[in-house]
Automatic annotation (TrEMBL):
<dbReference type="InterPro" id="IPR011006">
    <property type="entry name" value="CheY-like_superfamily"/>
</dbReference>
<feature type="domain" description="Response regulatory">
    <location>
        <begin position="3"/>
        <end position="122"/>
    </location>
</feature>
<feature type="modified residue" description="4-aspartylphosphate">
    <location>
        <position position="58"/>
    </location>
</feature>
<dbReference type="InterPro" id="IPR001789">
    <property type="entry name" value="Sig_transdc_resp-reg_receiver"/>
</dbReference>
<protein>
    <submittedName>
        <fullName>Chemotaxis protein CheY</fullName>
    </submittedName>
</protein>
<keyword id="KW-0597">Phosphoprotein</keyword>
């Protein structure tokens, strides 16, 4: 089971994200669990304690925007979960590169696009690490 942390200061945005992805977007991943976060400290605490396998962050949330939280997660948490930023304006996509987010999705969300991004990032996170090939002994 994977946990999707959904951060937005507005409950209706969190609900839209959860409805868009749904509890079973991919049979291989199994049922998803959702964790709501309404403020920045809750996001950092959950990620710091390993409670999130992926974070969907509203870039427009206040007072802590998703871009700043994504950058903080990537810079401060060892082996951080992937982050997906929701941006209201397509022109903000270039700004999202500063955040070190793994993906950017326009808000309001297109359920198919958001689901595809989340499934792809979760599969990548849960994929077995490639085994290092040992060099032949001489």
């Amino acid at each position: 089971m994977s946990t999707v942390l959904v951060y937005a200061d507005k409950p209706e945005v969190r609900e839209q994200v959860k409805l868009a992805i749904g509890p079973l977007p991919d049979r291989e991943l199994g049922i998803l669990e959702f964790l709501d976060a309404a403020d920045g400290p809750s996001v950092i605490d959950a990620v710091d304690h390993g409670e999130a396998d992926i974070c969907v962050l509203d870039a427009e949330a206040a007072p802590s925007g998703g871009m700043g939280l994504s950058r903080q997660i990537k810079n401060e948490i060892p082996n951080p979960p992937p982050t997906v930023l929701l941006v209201a304006r397509r022109d903000d996509r270039w700004l999202a590169s500063w955040s070190l987010a793994d993906a950017v999705v326009a808000h309001p969300v297109d359920p198919a696009e958001l689901t595809e991004v989340v499934v792809t990032l979760l599969r990548r996170r849960h994929a077995p690490a490639p085994r290092a090939q040992s060099s032949p002994a001489h």
